[in-house]
Amino acid sequence: MQVPQIRSPRVKEIIDHAEVLFRPERNTLSEKHEEELRAARFAARQTNNSGALVPAEAGCYFAHIRNLIVRKANCLATAYTSFSEPAGREADSVLSHFAAMTVAGHRSSFVDQASLTAMRTRKPNTQVRLVSREFEREADNALAEGLRILDMQRVQTKNRPPAQPTIYSATGPNARITINGTDHSTNLTVGPSDEAFSANPSGT
Hints:
The chain has one domain (9-159). The chain is elongated, with a radius of gyration of 31 Å. It has 204 residues and is mainly alpha-helical. Helix content is 67%, strand content 0%. The protein has helices spanning 9-46, 53-82, 89-121, 127-132, 134-159, 193-196.
């Protein structure tokens, strides 16, 4: 799939912001995936059933692919919301491209790992080809879920009432407005001396 071309500087800024949000999420999910793979392999070996390993590993890959795609969609939605913009169709293209790259990379990793295991154990595994076909279906389901997240963001953004402007009015001599702070300043008025003392009833 071709990399989406983002021409609008504002949209590019939003997409870049989504990537910044997603980067730590991806690292966390990758660490979780490795932990789950180790646990699944250990559990499969405990069964003493050689046919249990491939489905166990595949289940971890399927869950990881779904988590990545859905989390990417959430980050895109959050980025557009932070810019007070409904997600554009560029967001759909970015998510679809990400899903395609994700499933391709992880399916390749799964097949390579299964091939290494077969070579090490000298036991050909006929399950790999069948299971690898399921990657596309799992990715399609996750992508559909991610696109629904973007659709929801569009609806919520468009239905949000416009922000009402805040109008500040300051009148009188030396008027000032302090917002979200404390005013410790001192007023200094310069003027004719007769005006400064005109309010003295004694005239002295």
